[in-house]
Amino acid sequence: MPQLAVNIWADGPISTPQQPYKPDIRAWGTWVEGIITAFISGGGLIYTTKANLDGDLTPGNHAMAWVIGDATTANNGVYQKSGGTGTGSWIRSADLPYSYIVAEDIGAGTANAIQATSSIPISDSALVVVNVFETSTASPLTIQFNGMPILTVKTNTNNDVAPGGAFGGMLLFGSRRGSTFRLINDQVSSAIVAAAEAQANAAAASAALAAGYAAGVHLPGIFAGDKGKVLVAKTDESGFELISPNERVAKTAAYTVVDADYFRTIALGGSTFYELTFGAVAGYRSNFFVRVVNEDTGRGKRIKLGAASPFILWPGQSNIFYVSGGAWQPFIANQRWRPPINVTLYFDEALGSDSNDGLAPGAGNALYSPQYGIGIYHDQMDLIAGAPQVTFQFADNADASGALLAGLVGYEGMHYAGPATGAEGRSTLVLAGNASNPLQTKILGNNAGLAGLQVFGNSRLRVQNLYVCGGANGPGLSVSDGSQARLNNVIFGDSLTCLIFAELNSQVVLENQIKWKGSPSGANGSLVRVQHGSRFVSQGMAIHLAGNVSTALAHYVADAQSAIDVYGSSFVPNGFTATGKRYQITKMSYLDTGTGTPNSVVTGTANGTTDATSFAN
After folding, report:
1. CB–CB of 161/138 below 8 Å?
2. How far apart are CA 445 and CA 46, in angstroms?
3. β-strands 477-479, 453-456: how paired?
4. pLDDT-derived band of residue 212, with 50, 70 and 90 as boundaries?
5. SS3 of 325, please?
6. 550: pLDDT strictly greater than 70
7. How far is Cα 301 from Cα 191, in angstroms, rounded to an integer?
8. DSSP states along 413-445
9. CA-CA distance, 348 to 411, in Å (whole number)?
10. 3-state per-residue secondary structure call for 550-587
């Protein structure tokens, strides 16, 4: 058997006109002619339609027949009889052995999607000749024969036909190769030239456009040390600049952030307090952001974000600040500070300011208002790690006798409502004054009926080395709602109702001596009053007089299941007098001095009293 036509007429280079090989063509043609001769000499049958073929079952088994004129192109072909005379059916076994097939494009498709028809089915072994109805305008060009799958038209060198490469009226010669219709020639040179000229014009236009763009591009040079930097547009859009992502910039004094700090890390140090300022957002790029780290371990830094209220970035804290919606935003809002085990906030009535961080004494460092300090303690600290002790250290504001210094009004009454976040039931807030002479650090209640020191909400407070006065309308120290106050070397001055007041299951405990210097001025005044399940405990401690005192009700009052426990304590007059009834114990309460004769121990000028449900020992 000779080689197949698909191999003989395979695509070859245009530079070899001797191909295909002529002896192969003669061998193939002789073989085809032999088949045809054998078909005819063997009684081969020819039908014009497949219907006529199917209607004639007279031929015997394996008889051969051709259908050559059926209107349905796919029905034309070579058939073989399966079954004896008068029975069986005809089975299509091959295409008609035509060397080439003529197809016609009558314009049923489009210029770029040809639809052609032929009377003989298209096969891979036949050369197909088809006219072009209209000139193509795009690439790729496709063709479809007899409604069969669409084929992409390829040139002899397997390229797409260029737009305009198929002219109306020209003939295309080719064969089916898989999903393509491969031409035996390349497209006409005029189309190639036109395509090349179009590409050249497009390239020239692109070059001109690129040159125009390049004229407006100002790129910085690349030098040693620029490794890792990124290229960003300048704020004024005049060109580009190189920046180092996350470049660390150290600051040790007040600084205003600039647009050039974009993408940087500003490291704040210097072990001092100063301000980091962010200007109006109009002076920064719209996507500006910067990371700020307070690397100091002992000082805060004030952050001023445009027109917003400033806040403190505490030691060890960091945050990212960025522009969003035309305003400054912190990545972490209301960030709490976890201080070391112990931390001290300093207060100075003469030199302090609540815009400082309070982490050092003196001007530019200390805070002014104790109540502002309570806000820091409650709202800005997280004491969950180890429940550290926080101390408020007060600078002197009075002379050695307790008289306020010129121009000062005393540290205004402080109201402590509940422990700081994370320290519930564990952390103790310490208020500290002058250890050598507590009279020189004076806490004074205001005129709104509030105490000099008021503690409630299950809080823990230690007061040491302070001079506490209740003012005209409140007690010196008020403890309530399950809270506890521990006293160490505290002097109590004048107040309205009492010097120490505890109620609602609260407790006041003496850790060291206390002194009475002032008196309660109210009609029901007392030095100590406990009620509703509360206690005053002074076991083994000394209670001194630092001035003449008097009470309208009694020195020590316990009411409603409360207790005054002064077991082993001493009452030291120091040459001063204490006028008034010694104690009053009512409603299932008690006074315990541990002596059995409380009237001989407790200061006063009249014996104390108890009701039938209470006792004094």
Report:
1. no
2. 127
3. parallel
4. low
5. coil
6. yes
7. 75
8. -EEEESPPTT-TTT--EEEE--SS-GGGSEEE-
9. 9
10. ECCCCCEEEECCCEEECCCCEEECCCCCEECECEEECC
Ranges assigned E (strand) in 331-380: 342-347
Q: What span, in angstroms and rounded, lies between the C-alpha atoms of 312 and 305?
A: 11
Apex CA 337: angle with CA 333 and CA 343, to 5°? Answer: 155
Burial class of 222 by CB neighbour count within 10 A (0 to 12, 13 to 18, 19+): exposed
Q: What is the largest CA-CA distance in the chain?
A: 157
Least confident of 322-331, 346-355, 387-396: 387-396
For residue 464, the model assigns a pLDDT of: 98
Residues in the chain, total: 617
Which residue is associated with the tokens 């007040």? Answer: 254
- pLDDT for 425 beyond 50: no
Alpha-carbon gap, residue 558 to 543, rounded angstroms: 18
Q: How far apart are CA 226 and CA 219, in angstroms?
A: 14
Rounded to whole angstroms, the Cα distance separating 202 from 612 reads: 114
| Helix, coil or strand: residue 97 | coil
The string of DSSP codes covering 64-90 is: EEEE---SSGGG-EEEEEESSTTSSEE
State the pLDDT at residue 206: 72
What is the distance between the terminal CA atoms of the chain, rounded to a whole angstrom? 136
Question: How many H-runs (helices) and E-runs (strands) does the chain carry?
Answer: 5, 49
Coil, helix or strand for 201? helix
The number of angstroms, rounded, from the C-alpha of 439 to the middle of its chain's C-alpha atoms is 52
Residues 6+ apart with CB under 8 A from 241: 220, 231, 232, 234
Per-residue model confidence as pLDDT tens digits over 590-605: 999 999 999 999 999 9
485, two tokens = 């106050």
Q: Residue 498: beta bridge partners?
A: 526
Give the Å distances, CA to CA, from 344 to 195, 358, 513: 84, 8, 24
